[in-house]
Design a protein that fits this description.
Helices cover 36% and strands 18% of the residues. The chain has 1012 residues and is of the alpha+beta class. β17 and β18 form a beta hairpin. Bound molecules: pyridoxal-5'-phosphate (PLP).
C-alpha cells in the first residue's frame, strides 16, 4: 500500500497509464503488502486491468521470470493474466513514483471472483481445479529460469525446518502440540519415500485468494470452474507436488469433508499429470505442513506487527481446520488418494483376507463357547425394528429390546453389525466437526454376551496395544492382538468394551497363545456405558493409531475403511453373510425404480434421498444421516407420532372394515371433525385421498346445482383424476396437458405481489374477485350452467399465496348469487397450519358450502374427508349409493380421531403461530436482504419465499430456486419449490418444527443464497 494512497497517487498512476499504455483510465487501489497494486479501468474500451508496481527491492530477473512463466502457462491454454505491452512494446517498465524507482507491469483482470469469497462450491469444481493444477504442473515441468532458483522462506520443501524453528512462537500449548504432530508426521513420511521427489518451478501459492472461480450456474449449464490463477510472486524451484498440496490446504479450509475435496482434486490432477507413489504418500503431510507454516509465519509477523488484526483473522480458518485434518490418518488419506488415482491400495489388505481364509476353522472364537451355539442376529441398523421412537434417545430402548431378544433364545449369543449404519453413535466423538454427516458405519462385529464372559486369543500372537478409553459410548477397556500372516505381515485384532481390571496385567509385546483367555467382557459402568458386548474388529493396518483406531466411520468412506477392516466372521466360526449388513444404495434403488415404477412418478431433488426413518420434524436416510424436514405437511403432527401409531395398530388388531357397518369410530370421527367446522357444515364423507375427496366435491356441486361448469384459480391443483386434471390448470396447462375443457373457467390467482393487482392497491381483493363475474358471463354466453367455484383457500401449489382478506367474501357472494356452490380445498392449509386459524377460510370470514380435507388429517395414513351441509348431502342422495371401499374404514377413523386429539391437546395451532412469528422476523431480517429475494409471505408454518432475478421485471429465478433447494438437501434440510414459475421456495414443515429449527433453516438458507 503506498505510504501516501491519496488522490495525488491515484492521479500519478492514471497519468502513468496514459503515458505507458496510451489510454485514459480510472484507477483504484487494491490490497498488497510489498508491491502496490491498482485496478485500472480503461475508460474507452471498458476493459479492466491490474497494474502492479513492484517493491523497489524486487529483482528485475525475477520479474522477468514471472512474465516468462505466465507466457508459458498461457501457451498451454491456462487461465492466467495476460501481460499487456506498453506503447513501446515492453512488458516491464520502470517508473519513479513516490520518490522511488519501481518496476511495473499491466495485466488483464481475471474474470470471476476469488475462491476464498465463494461460500458454496459445486463439488465438480474441485475436479476442474485439480485438472488445472495438473496442467500447470505439466506446463512447468519443462520450464526453467535462473531467477527462480532461490532461497525462499515459504518454499514448502523447506517448511518442516521453518515450523520446527518457529514452534515456540505458538503460545497455545495444545495447538503447539498439533504443529509438532504435523512436523513429526512429515518427517516420518519423508523417511519412507523411496527416491528423490520430482522438482520443477512451482507457482508456490495457489491459495484461495489467488484462484479465481466462475459463479455457480444454477441451471447447471456452465460448470463452475477456475477462471484465473494470479500472483506468481512466490515461485520457486521446489518439489513439483507442492502446488497441489498448497492448493488443497486452502481449498479445504472450513469446508465439510476435506478428504473428499482433496480426492476430487487428486483424481483429476492425476489424469493430467500422473502422481508418483511417493507423491501420493507425502501429499496429505504437505497439505498439513503448509497450514502449519502459515500458523508459525503469522505468529512471527505478529511479533513485528502486533496491531495487524487481519493476520489474526486470516488464521482463524486454519486454526479451525487443521485439527480435523490431523484426525484423518495420513495413511488412510494415502489409500484414498491411491483409490482416486485408480491405483492399488497401499498396505497389506489382501494379506488380512488371506490370513482369515487360510485359518478358517482353526480360530478359537474370541468369545468363549460361541462356536457351539446358533447365533442370533441382532439388528442395530438404522431400520432396526428393535426400537421405535426418537432416534436421539434410542440407546436405552434399543438395548432393552436387545436384552429381551437375547433372553428369547437362552444361550445363543447375539451377533451382527459389520458395515452396519447405526443411529446409536450420538456422542461428540462421532461427529466430524466439519458439517459433514457423522460417523455411523460400524467397522467390526458385535457379540452380545454377559459381562465377565472370557475373551480368548483366536490364534497365537502377541499383545499389540491396550488402553482404557473412559468416554461415554467409547470402548472402556480395549486390546489389540497382533498375529502374523503366512508371509510374515502383521494382522491386528481389536477387542473393545472389556473390563479394564481384566486387562490390567497385559503388556504390549507379551506372547499369547490361541485359546488363551486375554480379557473379560466389561459391564456397563466400565465398558463405555453399553449393554455388555464385544466389539471385534480386524485391522489389515492400524494406520499407526493403535487402540485409537476408529470402530465406526462415515458412510461416505465406508467402502475404503471396510477394505482395511474385513469381516471378522471367520474368526467367530460364522458365515460372513450372517453378520454383514447388506446395503442397497440410493443409486441402485433409483435405477430399479426407473425400470419398475412409471417414470412420470418423479423423485424430489437432483440426487434423490432414500428416507428410511422419521421422527417428528426429522427424517433419516439409509446411512443414518438426519435431515430437518421443512417441507412435508402430510406428517402433520410429526413423523411417526406415537399416539397415531398406537391408535392405528390397536385398531388394526381389532378390526378393519368398510362403511357398510355401523361403527362408533366413524361417527366419533365425523362428530369431532364437524365440531371443528362452522355451523352449517355438519355432514361428512370419509375417503382415502384428497383426489377422491375433490372428485366427490365436484359431484356434490353438480348434483346440488344441476350445473356442470366450474370456476377455478389459474395454476390451481386439486388432484390426479381425469376430472380433477380438468379443473387443475397447473396440470392441464403444464407439460403434457391438453388445456382446459369448455366447462372450466380459470380466473387469476389473487397474487398481490406478482399479479395484476398488487399490495399497493387497497381494492385488489375485489378486483381479483371481479374476474369471477367475467367467468360467469362467459358461462352464460356459451349456454352453460354454473356448478361451483373451487380454490385452495391460500393457494399453496400456486406459490404459497395469501389472498387479500376480501377476495373470498366477494367471490363467494358472486358464486352464490349465480346459484353455484363454493368449495374450499383445505388440503394443504387445514388443521392449524396457518397458525392464526384452524382452517384458512376463517381468515376471510367466509363459510364454504363444501370443505375438502386431505393430507394432514391422517398424518400419513391415507385419509381424506368432505364436510358439507345437510342440504347438499341430501341432494346427492338421489338413489345412487356412494361407496368407497377403504374410505372411512375403522383404522382410518381411529387415526383421524388420534390426529385431531394430538393437534388439539398439543396446542399445535398456537405453536405454529409462535414459530411462524420467528420465521417472519428471521426471514425478513436475513435472507430478505438478498437481491434474489422478491417476496416473503406466509403465516404460521406456511411460507413462501419468491425469488426473482430482477426486482422491476420480476423475472422468475426458477433455476436459482431449484439450485437452492438442492443445496439445502445436501446440507441436510428438505424444502420444496412451487408456484407458476416454480420460483417460490416452499416451507411447510411438520407442525413440531420449532424455533431452533427456524434458526437452522435461516442460517443455511443465508449461506446458500450468499453464493449466488
Ligand atoms: C391442494 C391440493 N388438493 C388436492 C390434492 C390431491 O391430494 P391427493 O394426492 O391426496 O389425492 C393435492 C395434492 O397435492 C393438493 O395439493
Amino acid at each position: 500500500m503506498p505510504a501516501n494512497s491519496s488522490d495525488s497517487t491515484i492521479q500519478t498512476v492514471e497519468m502513468l497509464v496514459q503515458k505507458r499504455f496510451g489510454f485514459t483510465s480510472q484507477v483504484r487501489q487494491l490490497d498488497g503488502e510489498r508491491d502496490w497494486n491498482f485496478l485500472v479501468h480503461d475508460r474507452t474500451s471498458n476493459r479492466q486491468y491490474v497494474l502492479k508496481l513492484f517493491a523497489p527491492s524486487e529483482d528485475p530477473a525475477f520479474v522477468a521470470a514471472e512474465i516468462a512463466v505466465q507466457q508459458r502457462l498461457l501457451s498451454f491454454g491456462l487461465p492466467v493474466p495476460e501481460v499487456v505491452p506498453t506503447i513501446r512494446q515492453e512488458f516491464i517498465f520502470e517508473s519513479g513514483i513516490d520518490g522511488q524507482k519501481r518496476q511495473g507491469r499491466l495485466v488483464t483482470l481475471m474474470p470471476g471472483s476469488v475462491l476464498a469469497k465463494r461460500q458454496v462450491i459445486e463439488s465438480d469444481f474441485w475436479g476442474n481445479f485439480g485438472g488445472i493444477i495438473g496442467n500447470v504442473s505439466t506446463a512447468l515441468s519443462g520450464f526453467d529460469h535462473t531467477a527462480i532458483h532461490r532461497e525462499f522462506l515459504w518454499d514448502l520443501a523447506k517448511s518442516e525446518a521453518v515450523v520446527r524453528e518457529n514452534l515456540s512462537r505458538e503460545t497455545d500449548a495444545g495447538f503447539r502440540d498439533l504443529l509438532q504432530q504435523v512436523i513429526a508426521g512429515h518427517a516420518e513420511a519423508m523417511n519412507r519415500i523411496t527416491g528423490p521427489l520430482r522438482q520443477s518451478v512451482v507457482h508456490g501459492d495457489m491459495n484461495d485468494w489467488n484462484v479465481f472461480t466462475s459463479p455457480v450456474d444454477p441451471a447447471g449449464n456452465l460448470p463452475q470452474s477456475v477462471t484465473g490463477i494470479i500472483d506468481f510472486g512466490d515461485m520457486v524451484w521446489s518439489d513439483s507436488i507442492n502446488d497441489l498440496a498448497v492448493a488443497i490446504a486452502y481449498a479445504v479450509l472450513d469446508r465439510p469433508d476435506p478428504l473428499d475435496i482433496a480426492c476430487r482434486m487428486v483424481a483429476s490432477c492425476h489424469r493430467q499429470w500422473p502422481l508418483t507413489p511417493d507423491e501420493r504418500q507425502l501429499l496429505w503431510h504437505r497439505v498439513r505442513l503448509r497450514l502449519a507454516t502459515s500458523v508459525v509465519m503469522a505468529a512471527k509477523q505478529l511479533v513485528d506487527d502486533s496491531n495487524n488484526d487481519y493476520l489474526g483473522i486470516s488464521q482463524m480458518a486454519i486454526r479451525r481446520t487443521l485439527p480435523g485434518l490431523l484426525n484423518i490418518p495420513a495413511v488412510f488419506t494415502h489409500a484414498a488418494f491411491c483409490q482416486a488415482c485408480g491405483q492399488a491400495l497401499p498396505g497389506p489388505i489382501d494379506n488380512a483376507r488371506r490370513w482369515l481364509d487360510s485359518n478358517t476353522g482353526r480360530f478359537h472364537p474370541p468369545v468363549r463357547g460361541l462356536k457351539s451355539m446358533t447365533p442370533l442376529l441382532v439388528d442395530w441398523s438404522v431400520t432396526t425394528g428393535l426400537f421405535d421412537g426418537d432416534p436421539a434417545e434410542l440407546q436405552t430402548p434399543l438395548e432393552n429390546a436387545t436384552v429381551q431378544l437375547l433372553e428369547s433364545a437362552p444361550g445363543s449369543p447375539g451377533v451382527g453389525g459389520w458395515g452396519e449404519p447405526r443411529l446409536v453413535y450420538q456422542a461428540a466423538q462421532f461427529g466430524t466437526g466439519d458439517g459433514s454427516p457423522p460417523r455411523t458405519v460400524h467397522l467390526g462385529v458385535d457379540v452380545f454376551a454377559p459381562a465377565g464372559t472370557e475373551i480368548v486369543a483366536p490364534l497365537d500372537g502377541t499383545i499389540h496395544s491396550l488402553d482404557v478409553i473412559d468416554l461415554p459410548l467409547d470402548y472402556g477397556g480395549v486390546v489389540l492382538t497382533r498375529h502374523e500372516s503366512s508371509s510374515g505381515e502383521p494382522v491386528l485384532v481389536l477387542y473393545g468394551h472389556l473390563d479394564p481390571a481384566s486387562i490390567a496385567e497385559l503388556k504390549p509385546g507379551q506372547k499369547i497363545s490361541g485359546g488363551q483367555t486375554i480379557a473379560r467382557l466389561g459391564d456397563r459402568d466400565v465398558n463405555g456405558g453399553w449393554i455388555p458386548h464385544l466389539h471385534l474388529q480386524i485391522l489389515a493396518d492400524d494406520f499407526g493409531l493403535g487402540t485409537g483406531f476408529p470402530g465406526v466411520c462415515q458412510a461416505t468412506w465406508k467402502d475404503l475403511w471396510l477394505q482395511y477392516c474385513p469381516n471378522p466372521a471367520p474368526i467367530l466360526g460364522l458365515n460372513p453373510k450372517t453378520v454383514a449388513h447388506v446395503p442397497v444404495s440410493t443409486e441402485t434403488l433409483a435405477g430399479s425404480r426407473r425400470k419398475l415404477i412409471g417414470r412420470s412418478v418423479r423423485t424430489s431433488y437432483r440426487d434423490p434421498v432414500q428416507l428410511v426413518r422419521g421422527w417428528m420434524q426429522y427424517v433419516y436416510d439409509e446411512n443414518g444421516r438426519r435431515y430437518l424436514d421443512a417441507y412435508n405437511n402430510v406428517p402433520h403432527v410429526g413423523h411417526c407420532h406415537p399416539r397415531i401409531i398406537e391408535a392405528a395398530t390397536r385398531q388394526m388388531k381389532l378390526l378393519n372394515s368398510n362403511t357398510r357397518y355401523v361403527s362408533r369410530l366413524q361417527t366419533e370421527f365425523a362428530e369431532r371433525l364437524t365440531a371443528t367446522m362452522p355451523d352449517g357444515l355438519e355432514v361428512c364423507f370419509i375417503l382415502n385421498s384428497a383426489s377422491e375427496a375433490n372428485e366427490l366435491a365436484l359431484r356434490l356441486a353438480r348434483t346440488a346445482t344441476g350445473g356442470r361448469d366450474m370456476i377455478v384459480n389459474e395454476h390451481a391443483y386439486h388432484g390426479n383424476t381425469t376430472s380433477l386434471i380438468d379443473i387443475s390448470p397447473y396440470k392441464h396447462n403444464g407439460r403434457g396437458g391438453e388445456g382446459p375443457p369448455d366447462w372450466v373457467h380459470a380466473v387469476p390467482i389473487p397474487d398481490t405481489w406478482r399479479g395484476e393487482y398488487r399490495n399497493n392497491d387497497p381494492d385488489a381483493g375485489r378486483k381479483y374477485a371481479s374476474h369471477v363475474s367475467l367467468a360467469l358471463q362467459s358461462i352464460e354466453s356459451r349456454g352453460g350452467k354454473l356448478a361451483g367455484f373451487i380454490a385452495e383457500t391460500c393457494p399453496s401449489v400456486g406459490g404459497q399465496i395469501i389472498p387479500p382478506a376480501d377476495y373470498l367474501p366477494n367471490v363467494y357472494k358472486l358464486i352464490r348469487a349465480a346459484g353455484g356452490i363454493c368449495i374450499a380445498d383445505e388440503v394443504q392449509t387445514g388443521y392449524g397450519r396457518m397458525g392464526d386459524c384452524f382452517y384458512a377460510f376463517e381468515r376471510s370470514g367466509v363459510v364454504p358450502d363444501v370443505v375438502v380435507l386431505g393430507k394432514p388429517i391422517g398424518n400419513g395414513h391415507p385419509l381424506a374427508a368432505v364436510v358439507t351441509s345437510h342440504a347438499i348431502a341430501d341432494a346427492f342422495d338421489n338413489g345412487m349409493e356412494y361407496f368407497s371401499t377403504f374410505g372411512g374404514n375403522h383404522v382410518s377413523c381411529a387415526v383421524g380421531i388420534a390426529v385431531l386429539d394430538v393437534v388439539q391437546s398439543e396446542g399445535l395451532q398456537q405453536h405454529a403461530q409462535s414459530v411462524g412469528e420467528v420465521m417472519r422476523s428471521l426471514f425478513h431480517s436475513q435472507p430478505g436482504s438478498h437481491p434474489l429475494v422478491g417476496d416473503i409471505r406466509g403465516n404460521g408454518l406456511f411460507w413462501g419465499i419468491e425469488l426473482v432475478r430482477d426486482s422491476s421485471s420480476l423475472e422468475p429465478a426458477t433455476a436459482e430456486a431449484s439450485w437452492i433447494k438442492n443445496q439445502l438437501r445436501h446440507r441436510g434440510i428438505l424444502i420444496g419449490t412451487d408456484g407458476h414459475h416454480d420460483n417460490v421456495l416452499k416451507i411447510r414443515p411438520p407442525m413440531p418444527f420449532d424455533k431452533m429449527n427456524v434458526g437452522q433453516l435461516v442460517e443455511a438458507l443465508g449461506e446458500v443464497l450468499a453464493s449466488l
